[in-house]
Write a structure and sequence with these properties.
By secondary structure, this protein is of the alpha/beta class. It is built from twelve helices and 14 strands. The longest helix is centred in the middle third of the chain and has 18 residues. It binds iron/sulfur cluster. The site of iron/sulfur cluster has 14 residues, from loops.
Length: 365
């Protein structure tokens, strides 16, 4: 299969066409067809010169993945399972918020970070998604909205699906350049959030490279002992090192960072943990917001349970009392496979019934 044309920035496509003797304006014309008119095939681009279309079709594809399964929740959340050209399955989620329509994208097939609450970590990463495969998830969801005929448009993106986006850094950056480009989907950078498990060196690189896109960091514990238990990456990148990288981001970008905190019953959800978190945030109060995430239990991790609503409330109250900007993540699609990766996990298990198949459910990011 040819590579996805969605993986090229406008500048790259322009250079590629110019090298082959085509005018600069052709690239803009093609982009218009891809992102504004949402052409599904090169042959749809009726006003583009046929020689240019032939050249493009011999090197690129517009559709590299296909929809394998779709689940729609009563609250309007739609989970898509896409099959990639090599047969791998990935999950993409459309969520409806008061402020707009948000899509959660996957960046890798599997994940190497191995957070203990997330079954995705049990299945090692088999490969990174290309920039085009990440963009195509947005395009497929947009096409779904187009077909519904309500004129709705994807307005927000969260890079929080399966995979560690900073472990696929170059493709992530290209993806961000494509979806934010004013001549393409033109999604506002401030409407995009990238979530990392805390790859410190990449937080520095991100601070240097992408000034406008929001950053969220999965913290999940206020001290090293607990965080190492929950996220083994903390052994390599302990909290002090992570906070140094966050401080660099805050100083450089002067943008708030979101600290994500998944609440696990009797593990990290006590008021004393909340107090420790307040201490850790310290004088970063003005620049940090905490997002509390109620845990979605999955079969693979029976050691973790969902915090009681009273514990969530008490945790929230401690943070608020100490002036920390804090929210509890709203849940979407609770009547369908709610945990991230759950739909994919179930499908893989079905496909390989009888064979050993590690689970894949549930990132909190
Ligand atoms: S939570 Fe995210 S980073 Fe951690 S194992 Fe799951 S997919 Fe990977």
């Amino acid at each position: 299969m040819n590579q996805s044309i969605y993986g090229l920035t406008l500048e790259q496509l322009t250079a590629w066409l110019e090298e082959r003797g085509h005018k600069k304006s052709r690239a803009v014309q093609v982009w218009e067809w891809l992102y504004r008119k949402r052409a599904a095939a090169f042959s749809d681009m009726t006003d583009v010169h046929p020689a240019c279309l032939e050249l493009l079709a011999s090197h690129f594809a517009i559709q590299t993945a296909s929809e394998h399964l779709r689940q729609t929740s009563a609250d309007g959340t739609v989970k898509f399972l896409f099959r990639l050209a090599d047969g791998n399955l990935i999950e993409t989620v459309l969520m409806r918020h008061k402020y707009g329509l948000s899509v959660c994208v996957t960046t890798q097939v599997g994940c190497n970070i191995g957070c203990s609450f997330c079954a995705s970590g049990l299945l090692a990463k088999s490969r990174d998604l290309s920039a085009g495969e990440i963009v195509e998830q947005i395009m497929k969801v947009q096409l779904h909205l187009d077909q519904a005929g309500q004129g709705e448009k994807v307005s927000h993106i969260v890079v929080m699906g399966i995979g560690e986006p900073f472990d696929n850094f170059e493709n992530l950056m290209t993806f961000l350049r494509v979806v934010t480009h004013p001549k393409g989907l033109a999604i506002g950078p401030r409407h995009i959030t990238v979530s990392t498990s805390g790859l410190a060196d990449k937080i520095y690189a991100f601070a240097d490279a992408e000034p406008q896109v929001n950053l969220a960091v999965s913290l999940h514990a206020p001290n090293d002992e607990l965080r190492t238990r929950i996220m083994k990456i903390n052994r390599a990148i302990p909290i002090a090192k992570l906070m140094e990288a966050i401080d660099y981001y805050l100083a450089k970008r002067k943008r708030k960072v979101t600290l994500e905190y998944i609440l696990l019953k009797d593990i990290n959800d006590r008021p004393e943990h909340a107090l420790e978190l307040v201490e850790l945030i310290g004088d970063r109060k003005e620049m940090a917001a905490v997002n509390l995430i109620p845990y979605n239990p999955v079969d693979e991790h029976s050691q973790y349970r969902r915090s009681e609503p009273e514990s969530v409330r008490a945790f929230y109250d401690v943070l608020k009392k100490h002036g920390i900007n804090c929210s509890v993540r709203l849940e979407h699609g609770t009547d369908i496979d709610a945990a991230c990766g759950q739909l994919r996990s179930k499908q893989i298990q079905k496909d390989t019934a009888g064979a050993h198949q590690p689970g894949t459910a549930a990132p909190a990011r």
